[in-house]
Specification:
Layout: H1 8-30, H2 36-41, H3 48-59, H4 62-75, H5 77-84, H6 87-103, H7 110-118, H8 120-152, H9 157-206, H10 208-218, H11 228-247, H12 249-257, H13 262-274, H14 276-286, H15 301-350, H16 356-378, H17 385-391, H18 393-396, H19 400-408, H20 414-434, H21 440-458
Amino acid sequence: MTSTQIDFHTTIVILTAFSILWILWGWYLGKGSKSHDEFVLAGRNVGFALATATAMATWVTSNTTLVAPQLTFQFGVWGMLGYSMAALGLILFAPLANKIKQLLPTGYTSGDFIFTRYGKAAWIAFLIISLCYALGWLISLGMAGGILLSSLSPVSYHTGMTVIIFVCVAYTLLGGLRAVIATDFAQTIIIISGVVYIAYACINQAGFENVYQDVQQHQPELLNLLFPAAIMFFFNNIFFGIGEIFHSNVWWSRAFAFKQGVGKKSFLVSGLLWFPIPIVTGFIALSAYSLGIFPESPDMVGPLVAANVLGASGAILVFIIIFSALASSMDSLLAATADLISNDVYKNTLMKNASSQQTMAFNKAMIILLGVITWLICLPKLATLGALLNFTGAFVASTIWPIIYGLYGKSLSGRGAFIAMVMGTITGLICYFQIGFYTAALSSCFISLLVCQYFMRFKPIMFEWHSQCGK
């Protein structure tokens, strides 16, 4: 054990305390969820403060606290700024949230919209994309828990990964979306306070001038604003972030759960608050050279720098911050993905006459199943977090234009939306493997746009919502 690691006893105490805290809170909050609607949408009555906190905390994931430093370490200034552009997803979703609530006042999932607007074929393609993305994000979160513990304590990767998955499954299962949103509020406060403090400590110890000189000496291309791969990553990440939020049922479920008129304000504010966090965590990574830290894996640079600056107490603080960030994202993803399966596949397709209690029971079973699948896939560490997460960019970016044109336009057909999502995803995957992970979302979004434009210009339809709303 190094001097910057948490000792085994302290690690177990923190893990146990946080696990018990979140699980008991989830149980307490879930006591009032007696119906499927209350369990998955918190009664559709979430106010501004909790709405903003849950959007903010869910988007501050392991990716923000671990991958943002990794990408800054790899791409420099563009990596830092490029990751912060993911805030555009939250900001641009703000007007969409109100539109979603208006068009589908009794809707449950993003799949409800796709099926109503585009039909079964597009819905199947969208569902596959959503599940691939959700699984990729869940795996990255599970891996991050293992990486966190193994880099900051004597506890193994497998133990950390197992604990974070178990805890999130447990309190999501007990409390549903109400527990997810309430815990997100507390986790937001922990995350913001901790990140600001660590950044201050890094600046105070390393100094801006020393950081600049050491980066220039060891990796001068990180300061090069004409670094080609980094520029490509910058634009790729914009569309990746927008695609993640626009398509994911994590955000659609919140649009349905928030009070009327709250969605637009809460998503806008949460996006503005989130924007500087990757810049702050990115600077922490650039401090590595000044502190003589050269991590074996780039996705470990953030925790190692913070632990080095603050010692054992810093390792504890980093652990608490990232544990909170992991939990705030994994619980949201578990709940939203289980909702998508239980509503779209079980309730609307397989068991159309299922009662509220039957649907809620199936939903809980899906939460457990998703947790088990994630744990099994996480057993071998597959790749770095950045590479794994950006693999899903090929999928999600293909949905941006079908969703926008579906919400605000009438001429895109179901066939056009289907082909746009399929062709965009295939192109993105080809570019991911043949060129680099930083091209997947960009190419997927571009091809999807071309297909949508072709169908709207040459094979348009005239869709009317009317009685379709709430279907």
